[in-house]
Each structure stands twice: as structure tokens, then as C-alpha cells.
């Protein structure tokens, strides 16, 4: 049994947290590979460092160094353990310092990837040495050591799963076979030129899923600071409940459209190999968390969870008979994608194509759209400050009349639905309402579909 265990920033954010994590790792039976984020706050700090003037970098570097050394001193009380840590720590620190002073490297478009990948290199070292201090064989491995291969644009990499699997079989599995726990850097992979490329903010979850895929693990565990996926955001709905089990499809939609629990790309690498995934709370290891797998659950409640993506805008492009000129939609899409802006929904009619994007992306998108041929565009309308409500459940679309019932609930919230996407995914029903109606809409949908179903179950 091989488990890949991933720990997030708060789970490794202090000496106490690291001690707790080491206990969790050791209490897990079977073989383990650990993937870790940077200590909490460190990635933001490194992003700031990239933007700082070179003269102030040395000071910041000292702060970074002191923070990690301070935690190491608290963890590794035995001099021998602390010195063994320093032996690995010093060359990493020297390489980091060189990188910050390397004027040639600064010109590289992937420089920020390189600098922000530094946090994980040090948190993994701390966790590895803590595991050794409590008596387990562990080895700190960077993404370079493992051969996690990344491709893509700066700050937005994807893993090459095939290459990574081949490399991990050679570089990682032999350590596991010899009883070591590899502690691997999350967040980034390495391009074909050997330099780092990060997987986007929160990307260590994705790194862990990539490792689980590459190692053909039996289980992926994402250890974070919440209990698991919830039926709604508990800050909005006090009656929200933890979801015990869900399908890959449900988890992927929820992670993408609202719940900030998993990096949205975590599901794909494990879904490909049917590796079950558990989300667990490192502050409450006795709790079971949420299990995500390919199996549908037996209960037949319709709605799993209702989430919202807020601060969005609808951009509607009107043009005569767009429906008869699909190439026009292609041109419009191509323009928008020049800015790599995420599009959360698209809807078309005879003469309009409407897109849903983040409020912050509106200005740049309009500038791009203005470059379109005047013959393609009659008018562009922007409806700002809307939110996408995402209702997720893998039984949702298989039952007749469900959308009618959900929109009935929306009517009770007196919310005007401005855009709908149904059927594009077989596990979700998404629609857009004004920001001012989000909370009421979520509360009513949750009460009608989740709380009612739980009441019935108890009867
Ligand atoms: N440390 C990175 C971040 O803060 C990656 C992660 O935490 O998953 O975005
Ligand atoms: Mg995270």
C-alpha cells in the first residue's frame, strides 16, 4: 500500500505544526511519499521579493533564512540532528542567494517561477529532518531530484504525466523500496531545460496528484486546515455539513467553481488512474475527511453542495446573426484568450455571445475586444458584479424537474437569473445572479435541498 500525503502551508507553518505532521505521517500504515507546500506566508513573501528592488533583497533573504533556522532549532534539539540539517540547508541557501543576485537569470521569463519555488525547497527539508529526528528514514527530494516534468507558460505550468512517471520510477521508487519516506517539494516541476515552472497558486495539491499518478499510488491524502468539502460555505450557511464521500466529477466542479479546498487541477491526475483521494484536516487527524473516488454514492440526495464564485462580470457581444457565423465566435474567443483570462461560462443566442469573467479582467478584455473588426461587433455590454452559483450533485441532471425546483428556490430569493449553464457538465447546474443576491440564494437552495434531505434521512 503506497500513500502520497500532501501537507499545506498552515500544516507545516510552525515547529508545532511540523511536529504534528510528522506524527500523522508515522501513524499512517504502509509506504508513504510526502509532498509539501512552503510554510504559510512564504510564497507571498517570495512574490514580494521578486518585485522588491535588488538592494533590499539581502535583508529579506536574512529574514527568510532566520525564519527557517528558528523553526529548525526548535525542532531539532539534538546537535547532531541540527548539524545534519545545516549541511543540506546551507547549499540550498547559497543557491537561492546566487539566484537573487544573478542578473542574467532575472531576465528569464520564468525567473519568478524560480524564485517562488524556493519556499518548498526549505519546508521539505524541515519536515524531512523532523521525520529523521523522530526515528524514521526520510530523504528530502526536490522536483528536480524526482524528475517532475512541467510544460507551459510562466506561473501556469502543467505536468507531463508520462515523463514524470518514467522519472519517478527511477528516482523515487527505489527509496520507497528501501524503507525511506521521500519528502518532495510541491508547487513546481522542471522544464526540459532543467529550470523550475510553477503550477499556479496552491499548486502543491496538483503536485501531489501528479506524484500519486506517477507512482501509481493506492491513495492520495491532501492534509489541509479544514474538515473536508462542505455542503456550503459554513461562513454563509451555519447548517452546512461536511461531505463524507463524493465523485471525482463533483469534486472537480466544486474545486473549480467555488470551494477553495483543493487546487482545481488536483482531480485529473488521480482520476486517470482511479486513485482515491482523501481531504483531511491536519489539526483534527481523528476525523475522516472527505473521500473522493470514481464511485457514485448510494444515497440519493440530489444536491451535494452549493458554492459561488463571486466578483464576476458578463461581457455580451452583440452582432447580427452570430449563430450563422461560428467563425465569429472563434475570432472573439481567440481575442479573449490572448490575455489568458479564465472564462467561467459561455452562452450564445442568435445575435449574442456572452462570457463570464472576473471583474478584474474586464478592462484588459475590453481592450482586446476593441481590436476586433467593426463588422464583427455591433455592441458590447458589460454587466458587472454578478456571481456564479454552482449547484453540484451527480444525480442532479438525471432527475426530471430538478432545475425547475432549483429555480423555484432562486425565485424565493427574488434573484434575477442572468445566465444559465446546464448540461455542459453532467454533475452541475450553474447560473448567474447579482452579487447582492448571492447569500440569500445559497441559503435558500441549501435549506431546500440539503437540509431537507438530511431531515428526511433522520426520519
Ligand atoms: N506555496 C504555494 C502557494 O502558496 C503552493 C501551495 O501552497 O500549494 O501557492
Ligand atoms: Mg492549499
Task: Describe the model.
By secondary structure, the protein is α/β, with parallel strands linked by helices. 41% of the residues lie in helices and 22% in strands. The chain contains 17 helices and 18 strands. It has helices at 15-27, 42-51, 57-75, 79-101, 103-106, 111-116, 118-133, 143-146, 161-171, 173-177, 204-214, 248-257, 267-272, 326-337, 362-369, 402-412, 438-458, and strands at 2-7, 31-36, 138-141, 150-153, 156-159, 181-185, 188-190, 196-198, 219-224, 245-247, 277-281, 290-293, 305-318, 345-348, 352-358, 379-392, 419-422, 428-434. It has an eight-stranded mixed sheet, sandwiched between helices. The structure holds aspartic acid (ASP) and magnesium ion (MG).
